Amino acid sequence: MIDVVDVRKSYRSGDRTVDALRGVRCHVPKGRFAFIVGPSGSGKSTLLYLLGALDRPTSGSILVEGQDLTTMSEAEQNAYRRDRVGFIFQSFNLISNLTAVENVLVPFLPRGMTPELKVRAEALLRDVGLGDRLDHRPYQMSGGEQQRVAIARALIKDPILVLGDEPTGELDSKTGDEIYRILRRLQVQRETTLVVVTHDRRFITPDDLVLEIQDGVLKIDDGLLEPEDDLPETMIGFEPGLRRPDVV
Length: 248
Prior knowledge:
Blueprint: E1 2-13, E2 16-28, E3 33-37, H1 44-51, E4 59-64, E5 67-68, H2 74-84, E6 85-89, H3 100-104, H4 115-127, H5 143-155, E7 161-165, H6 173-190, E8 193-197, E9 209-214, E10 217-220, E11 223-225
Parallel strand pairs: 3-8, 3-9, 6-7, 7-8
Antiparallel strand pairs: 1-2, 1-4, 4-5, 9-10, 10-11
Helix pairs in contact: 5-6
């Protein structure tokens, strides 16, 4: 599903170069729930944005279902984001003067909405527990309800990949638990691949893949996987508690 191959990302900050990612390699299979964790400034969101083609790496390759995002044209990347990826951010990014249904349908505004799409949007909102909020605007809903609208908006396209950047960061713990229950249920029902950045490890289960980043490199349990280390090609993601492979 997702193959990240020796990805590096550098930024210019004044007169110096900042290496946000330093040779990241990983594989996330189709239909899995993966978490990207690590300290602030470690490169978590940078990796997530690269997976969503919101930015380009300095070097390396990112393949999603065999398609290399790094060789896509601007138009091809736009189509990838529009048609194949759903985004859920910490800020709900709802349009204040639109109803819940209309906010879910925002991805289709440039192409036009059909009665069939409206039916799908209403069904999704009912599926996330908002059947009685279809015509409510954001200011009439709680934070948890607004994030559920954002989840429905991310899924309306039937994406192959859903990316979340701290989706419960602005919610209390109880509401955060509800959001993750919804995400997990929908992920199983739709066999969608989810990759989520979080600071809160309590949402991680033993069945999840965990990508822990520190100083721009992947950290495996008791040590950092440096770019020059040998990573077996068959290694799938990084399961919680997996030991560092021997380096030949």
